[in-house]
Amino acid sequence: MKDEGLWACHLGPELGGQGFGQLKLALMNEKLGRNSLAPTIFGCQAPDTGNAEIIAHYGTEAQKARWLQPLLNGEIRSAFSMSEPTGGSDPLTFRTRAVLDGNEWVINGEKWFSTNAKYSKLLVVYAVTDPDAKDPYRRTSIFLVPTDTPGVEIVRNVAVGGGGEIGGGNEGYVRYNDVRVPYDALLGDRGAAFVIAQTRLGGGRVHHAMRTVGACKHALDLMCQRAVSRTTRDGRLADLQMVQEQIADSWIQLEMFRLLVLRTAWLIDKHKDYQKVRKDIAAIKVAMPKVYHDIATKAAHLHGALGVSNEMPFMHMVTSSLVMGIADGPTEVHKVTVAKQVLKDYRPDNDLFPAYHIPKLREEAEKRYAKELGEIREHYAGRREKKSEPV
């Protein structure tokens, strides 16, 4: 992929990428989303992409030399160690602490669903450093912790979805037992974890949505292929109106979602600031799991018993759709974000009846256009008088 100029296209040329921009990247990710191995082959797999992005933006030159280039080259893997068993991904509930002891930070706590921790060389760890800070969003900091640091314990690995053996997944349950790292393991400013996280998570949410467009298109293609191929006593599935309805609904859902994703990508390219596109990013994050779930479920159903077996991809798709409703923040949180951002453009009207109350609008119109209305009334009154005159 490097020789073809398609490696790490989400990054700028100064970081070894192609600098595609979000809109072009969205079109590319539609293709990559059809195969779960594709992002790794093209050097844009999670969570390494997001981790590399924040190191590039906030890391020191020493941190970049040690971690960034190996990540960009695909030589090492990393894990995003943020969520906790006790409070999920809500930063105000974190219990993992990092205490300064001389020139070292001592980290204690537990993290949950640290994806690919067992394969990683680097853990990007969120820990509370300033529990008494007045601003609750300035209490947590980020640390770059080598996975082989003494005290790092992977308690077990958790798998997503049903089936498989306990302990055989890729989601690490990690315990930090008096883990000591030097002072300069701190990424960015002390207490800046929340700000840094928004840089990382904003891009991650968009890229998830881009790839989900491709996954939904893949499910729709398989659904349509099944519909035109499978026959019953009454003919092809494709000739049945209820099947046609499912295909039509799926295509409409996908196209609406795709256009919303492309528009959001365009806005990011335009503003160069995730915060200015916060509402739109939250909106695609809300739409993503529902669209994916609806299309994948319909595709599975059209395949009958085969569709729910492990010989077809649909149950993995359904599980992935549920994951998309949780990863990088639950759907409910993003709905609140959308609503708050929309409501910012409106101001209250505290009269007994709202400004758009029809009698009130009529009264205002009559005052504003009193002259014109008077002329119209005189004109029609004159016409009525003429009609009433005898011939």
In a nutshell, what does this entry contain?
With about 400 residues, this protein is of the alpha+beta class. It has helices spanning about 20-30, 40, 50-60, 60-70, 195-230, 240-270, 280-300, 305, 315-325, 330-345, 360-370, 370-390, and strands at about 80, 95-100, 105-115, 120-130, 140-145, 150-160, 170-180, 185, 230, 235. It contains 12 helices and 10 strands.
Number of helices: 12
Low-confidence stretches: none
Mean pLDDT: 93
Q: Please tell me how large the radius of gyration is.
A: 28 Å
Q: How many β-strand stretches?
A: 10
CATH topology of the largest domain: Butyryl-CoA Dehydrogenase, subunit A, domain 3
Q: What is the string of helix and strand elements?
A: HHHHEEEEEEEEHEEHHHHHHH
Distance between the termini: 93 Å
Physical arrangement of strands within the biggest beta sheet: 1-4-5-8
- Class inferred from helices and paired strands: alpha+beta
- Gross geometry: globular
Major β-sheet annotation: 4 strands, mixed
Describe this structure in words.
The protein is an alpha+beta fold. It folds into 4 domains: 13-77, Orthogonal Bundle (Butyryl-Coa Dehydrogenase, subunit A, domain 1), CATH 1.10.540.10; 79-187, Butyryl-CoA Dehydrogenase, subunit A, domain 2, CATH 2.40.110.10; 194-343, Butyryl-CoA Dehydrogenase, subunit A, domain 3 (Up-down Bundle); 358-388. It has 12 helices and 10 strands. The protein has helices at residues 22-32, 38-41, 48-58, 61-72, 193-229, 241-271, 278-302, 304-307, 314-324, 331-343, 358-368, 370-388; strands spanning 78-81, 97-101, 104-115, 122-128, 140-146, 152-158, 171-182, 186-187, 231-232, 235-236. The strands form 3 sheets. The chain has a 4-stranded mixed beta sheet, covered by helices on one side. A 4-stranded antiparallel beta sheet has the order 2-3-7-6, with no helix packed on it. A two-stranded antiparallel sheet has the order 9-10. A hairpin with a 2-residue loop joins β9 (231-232) and β10 (235-236). The protein starts with 21 loop residues before the first helix and ends with a helix. The model has no long low-confidence stretch (mean pLDDT 93).
